[in-house]
Amino acid sequence: MSLYRIGVDVGGTNTDAAILDITAADTPGRGVLSSHKASTTPDITSGIEAAIRAVLAGSAVDQRRVLSVTIGTTHFINALVEADTRRLSRVAVVRLCGPFTRQIPPFSDFPAGLRRILDGGVYYLDGGLEIDGREIAPLDHEQIRQAARDIVASGVKAVALVGIFAPLDHAGIHEETCKRIILEEAPGLDVVCSHDIGPPGLLERENATILNAAILRTAHKVTRGFQRAMARLKLACPLYLSQNDGTLIDADGAADYPIKTFASGPTNSMTGAAFLAGLDKVKTVVADPSGPPEGDSVEPQVLVVDIGGTTTDVCALLPSGFPRQAPGFVEVGGVRTAFSMPEVVSIGLGGGSKVMTDSDSGEVAVGPGSVGHFLTSQAMVFGGPTLTTTDVVVASGKAQFGDAALIKDVPVSTVDRARRKIKTMLGGVIEQMKVSAAPVHVLLVGGGALLVTEGLDGVEKCIQPIHQGAANAVGAAIGKISGEVDVIEILEGRDEKAVVAATCKKAFDLAIQKGAAPEDVRIVEVNKMPLQYVDNGAMRIQVRAVGKLSVPENPVFPPESANTVEEEEEEKEAAKESVPDALEPTTKPSLKVDLETYRPSVTNGVWYVSEVDLELISTGCGVLGTGGGGPTHHEFLKSLQALRTSEKGRMRIISPKALKDDDFVCFGSWYGTPSVINERIAGGTEIPAGIDAVTKIVGNKSLDGIFIDEIGGGNGLSVFPTGVHYDIPVIDGDGMGRAYPTMYQETLSVYGHPLAPCALADARGNVSVVMNTDTPIRLERFLRTAAIELGLGCAVCARPLPGSAIKAHGVPNTLSHAWYLGRAVHMARRKKSSYIDAIFDVCAGKLLFTGKIIDVRRYVGGGYTMGSVLLAPLADEDRDPDAKDAGSGVRHMLIPFQNEYLYAALTDSEGSEKNQEVICTVPDLISILGQDGEAIGSQDLRYGLRVNVIALPAHPLWKTEKGMPVGGPKAFGLDMPFVGVGEYTEPRSVIDEFGA
């Protein structure tokens, strides 16, 4: 008995539909009975209806036997991208946070116009959890009811409910309870809980929850439209929508969580191509599937190459059959979120790409310009004036289009060079997306697939699947159900394998509960990530189980007249309002200035910090972070907030040279694990509380300035809000010149200046002070013990010191250094020139290696995230022109880390110790930079990333008999001599250069 599934994929230009007989999936045609391409209609729904009607007619099936319809569409978020006020609701944000999170209010990084449309106020309520499950504060029921009444009174109807560590609250004791109380008090509100939307990382999860709440009303309306269309088609089966990760969500779920469906198109194409090629057998994994193959496995790696009219998109398929996911963050409507998205690399090569010849050298260039949709009027074979890649393929006799006689005058040499160029471009992007040394199988789809006329270098097999033109609709039709679990477990005293197995069982059961066939469910992804700076074995475990939609054993087919959705009158929409600044970014101020002519504001030896300065310093602090110090984005937002809400002139920097010897200089930075600091965002009172405690103990003097503990990473920016709070200047310098994992690895401590009394403080008013210790190492142990009790996210404030100490043993001008490095990277990015050259124009340094990450190993030791990263060299043609002298030959590079990168060594492809040639060690700075010039922290290293490794000389204070034992290799238990990369040159001073 035949049973059918229908898939629809809605693109910007075309709507594709396909119908499959799932009982014939093992036949050569893979069960595809009919497919259809229709123009996408403005209302979306009528185009979908027309496409489904066409495949039903084309297949002539008994449509009562259709088990499901799946739609992949971006329609839900078009209202966000277009900032369409008619389709967006204002959103009130309710944070369950106790005294925390005030330092970064909701909407902080929203584009200006979108924030104006959506911002419905914020309510900070008691609640939230610590990383280990303890309550920050119990829920206050009356407080919640009052907030609900206030929201109703304000006229807002949508609520984003965000609790600290809500994704780990599997019992639902906070967000779900709060939602129930709100709806009891105000039944007319739409409430979206953040734990249903995203993983830990409060700001990104909150942003997505706000966006979801804003489009909820539109999503329900659109979904009802889809259901009415199915009723008109007399289809009584379930309706599903494709999610961003390629799995399915039922129509009611999609109406409640529309934000999860905004980018399903690329995933549908990739999974559809894999299915059509017969590669849909799901494998079980026991480790990170994006990692390298183990043992002697020769399982091929599969890349999908989708060649369109203008671009070629390439994606790597994991053993699970799903695309490899991109790292980092995804912007939706200009808003930063943390959704799982396919990693797709695009190049400007397609069937309509223009082919140009240099009249002097005869060299041929292909793309990125394209005739696009005008191929049939612009290409030479169709009588047009433009030589395109399609013309080249026809001229070489590999395809028949148009009139070949029209291109008989194109020189053979041009055709040959263009063909070689096309082959080189495809080979380069395939090499870039390879995830291992295993043989490569390419699935070739898209209308421009005709460009591949011969074998590709490095590709063992090239497959053009049947029905490849409908791969996206087929991908929608065969979508699977997933069960995902994301937990943080304390492994101390427990069997790790048993904990992981229990987590896998939860994911397995969840997939079945959501509709997956039990016999088909497989665990396809297991990620284990030790948490930094903790020593109780805390580990974040992410498990994903997927399975096909279950088929009823005895399906009951509805009568032909089944129609359960009543037609409703379409509301007449008002004219769309124009919002010119809808997508204007509020966190990228440098885009509004010419960086070549931009001058910081320096008057009488005082540098008055601007938003542009903060952005440049943020990028530079990442470079100086040497893999540690935590991400800079949150500290950048805190500093922006402090600057925008303070009186003009309160945020300022002075040179260490401006200090008097008896000036009283304080310290204050963040201490704990980034996993907490990025979720339990600071309240803003922590650092001042710590400073007040230690200044009271040493003698209540007035403060004359604040000095940075470590310039590297987020802590390099943490002093700016504190300087504004006390109205004191920030001193241009720090105690490390980089980032280090412990408090005592500061030059001031190394040279005898005491750290104690030293305070830890949190936003609840808890302050712990270590009065004195026999060694700096014991101080670190005391601080770590107290930090665990305070939730592993607190302020640390060392003893204030006199100006004479800062001038003698601080590392000077490091804020200036960060500013110049940031400016160099941003200018190179804008000019599309080498950021490596730009960085070395700022300071001495060396490019150590250019390559691709092929292995990352992590484990917890002594409270730190330890591990190593192994890099392989790139192929010559794939290497950046400025990196030709790095990573030459076949040598690999190994970089061990303890939060920060410890040394860099050339080695063999296994990373074995006996073949290592160490070329740089701490205390010199080793940084790994991505293709955009931004630093990649040790927590963000991931298989397949293309990177440059640079090294910068450390300050001479680290290279003495006192400095080397604390900051050199022996400090990290490494039995090796120091290897440096040159002489340190003191950074230029922004104050000196621009104050003249």
TrEMBL record:
Domain Hydantoinase A/oxoprolinase: 205-285, 301-400
One Pfam family of this chain: S-Me-THD_C
InterPro entries assigned: ATPase_NBD, Hydant_A_N, Hydantoinase_A, Oxoprolinase-like, S-Me-THD-like_C, S-Me-THD_C_sf, S-Me-THD_N, S-Me-THD_N_sf
Domain spans labelled Hydantoinase/oxoprolinase N-terminal: 5-185
Domain S-Me-THD N-terminal: 613-771
Residue span(s) of domain S-Me-THD-like C-terminal: 778-979
GO MF annotations in UniProt: hydrolase activity
Stretches for region Disordered: 554-588
Name the record gives this protein: Hydantoinase
